[in-house]
Model the fold of this input.
Amino acid sequence: MNEEFLEQLEEWHEEDEFEEIVDAITEIPEEERDYALISHLGRALNNLERYEEAVEQFLSIQEEGKDDPLWHYRIGLAYYYLDRYEDARRAFEVADHLEPGDEDTLEFLEWIRNKTAPKPAEKSGAAVSYTDPDVLNFWDDSAPEADKYVSAPLTDELIESVEEALVFKLPASYIQAMKVHNGGIPRNRKFPIEDGAQDFIEISGILGIGRDKKKSLCGSLGSRFMIENGGYPEVGVVICDCPSPSEVVMLDYRSSGNDGEPEVIHVDKANDYKITRLAANFEAFISGLE
Done:
């Protein structure tokens, strides 16, 4: 493509002359438009708030754009303003993976979280209180696999050493839960989600804080093992395995930083490492299990 023409498109963009961009590119026969031109066209349509048309243009170069963070960002923006928040979330998460730390991408992800977070009044079920003696009814210690998850009682020294090994500060609610019962298999193991393909995700167990059991955070089959051997994203700590060996539940520290309050996400390796946000924090995740 003529470099002077591309420079003209950039100049029009800087001058907010988006109609000029659309008119100039649409005069070119479709079969002669390359990736760069269609990217300019889609961006201009976004700026004109013609989001449906923008999505159509971006999808026409989807294969070429799969490794381009700008392609994912721009189609994510269009999806966002079409109120297609799950599509937007997926696009921005890929953009963040390809170009970590971009402020605009992180801002959109935060807006999506705010828009899709359940309202307190809509939340079903009572929150689990780990100071309540009945909390032990949360766990199914009679399950055949339970012993593989339940680690030795916690000490402050063990918590500190595990956090140091993981390089993440564990949530206070998670630590509190593990002080009462250090890992195990919950009686309720399904977490409802709004996804066209499925109604819930299912966990097998919750990893305890320790090293003594294989299925503990620093055990031989723990968080680091699953991330490194499964290729899961380096966004935090695996806290639950799932019946499907290609799925995990993780604490996600991308927005909070390593010392902040992480969100809880589900990662599906078999579905191109699709990330689904489950809850704003560990306590909300536990309370939502059915």
Summary: The chain is about 40% helix and 10% strand. The first strand starts at residue 190 and ends at 192. Residues 120-128, 130-134 have pLDDT under 50 and may be disordered.
